[in-house]
Design goal:
Blueprint (H helix, E strand, L loop, with lengths): L3 H14 L5 H8 L3 H13 L4 E4 L5 E4 L12 H12 L10 H13 L3 H13 L13 H13 L1 E8 L5 E14 L2 E8 L4 E6 L3 E10 L8 H9 L6 E7 L3 H7 L6 E4 L4 E7 L2 H10 L4 E5 L1 H19 L6 H9 L1
Antiparallel strand pairs: 1-2, 3-4, 3-7, 4-5, 5-6, 8-10, 8-11, 9-10
Helix pairs in contact: 1-3, 2-3, 4-5, 4-6, 10-11
Length: 331
């Protein structure tokens, strides 16, 4: 929930991000009435912020052109959200530079009050988030380039590698980007196939922005298309696993969006649908909680294969002289 101080700061941020914004728009964003918006505008004006009000059909509030805002101010909740987002970039499975993340984190911490800085510095020092497994991570530059094309409604030319390793040249009208269970996809209209398609980003061999613009179909629901088609890309396994742990413990480990958690006399029953049985097995083992598999049998088999690989690694003997030779090579 917003408090009055954070609402005032949010009004200031919205005014900075938009040329003009109406009172009803501000009221909707802050979940308040228009009268309260006028009160917050007055508070900012009394503090010396040059906010101008315009009337008429396209009227609203705006900052006086040329005015430079003071350095960014964050509430504790906003600062926490930014820091946790930066720390969790590895979970986004993007090829982002660790140096860039560390630099942004340092800048955010530097502008915070001392108490908030100490608390969030403790989070960054003690929170460990390992990246999820993925064959190929998209670069941040690629996501920015595609997002820009989507925003500008600009066609792109791609060289796309199919599942059978066939390369085709496509002209695509990009509509959206989506991350789904360890992979990233581009949603767009394929001019060659004359229909909407999903393109895996790790199969894009080359991307070129074209000078051609396109008119987006306003009735196309990008989110509904993604949910409908990605669910069909792989068989869906109904997973039922019973953890031998307290419900509160399991809830801390497994997000609610991953499936349902039900308390049982022996522990907690976890139920969900997954498309990749191998990654599901690795995920369950990584939770470091004892569990019993109720189904499907394929999950048991994958866990046994995973256990065999672990045993082989644990019992493998190093080759004589291998360590010394590797040191020599490094030197």
């Amino acid at each position: 929930m917003y408090n009055p101080t954070s609402r005032v700061l949010t009004v200031l941020e919205l005014l900075q991000s938009k040329t003009t914004i109406t009172g009803p728009e501000l009221a909707a964003r802050l979940e308040i009435d228009v009268r309260s918006v006028r009160r917050y505008i007055t508070i900012l004006q009394d503090a010396g912020i040059p906010i101008e009000a315009t009337i008429g059909r396209h009227g609203g509030y705006r900052l006086r052109p040329g005015y430079k805002l003071p350095p960014l101010l964050f509430s504790d909740e906003e600062a926490t959200a930014i820091v946790l987002s930066l720390l969790a970039t590895s979970w986004l499975e993007i090829g982002q530079s660790p140096a860039a993340v560390e630099g942004a984190l340092a800048k955010v911490l530097r502008v915070l009050p001392s108490r908030a800085r100490e608390r969030l510095s403790a989070v960054s020092a003690h929170l460990i988030l390992s990246p999820r497994e993925q064959d190929a991570q998209p670069s941040a530059a690629l996501l920015i380039e595609l997002s820009d094309a989507i925003s500008q409604r600009q066609r792109i030319a791609i060289d796309y590698r199919s599942q059978n390793d066939a390369i085709t040249q496509r002209t695509v009208e990009p509509y959206g980007l989506v991350g789904w269970w360890g992979r990233w996809y581009l949603v767009g209209y394929c001019c060659m196939r004359r229909g909407y398609r999903l393109f895996r980003l790790d199969r894009l061999q080359q991307v070129r922005l074209l000078a051609e613009s396109f008119v987006r179909a306003e009735d196309f629901d990008c989110q509904a298309y993604v949910l409908e088609h990605l669910a069909k890309l792989a068989p869906r396994w109904q997973i039922e696993v019973e953890f031998q742990a307290a419900l509160s413990t399991v809830q801390q480990k497994i997000p609610a969006s991953y499936g349902t958690l039900t308390a049982t006399p022996e522990g907690v029953l976890f139920q969900g649908q997954y498309g990749d049985i191998a990654s599901t097995a690795r995920y369950l083992v990584g939770l470091n909680l004892p569990f019993v598999v109720h189904g499907p049998p394929e999950l048991r088999e994958e866990l046994l294969r995973l256990a065999e690989r672990v045993v082989r690694s644990a019992t493998a003997q190093p080759q004589p002289g291998a360590h010394a030779s590797s040191i020599a090579a490094a030197e």
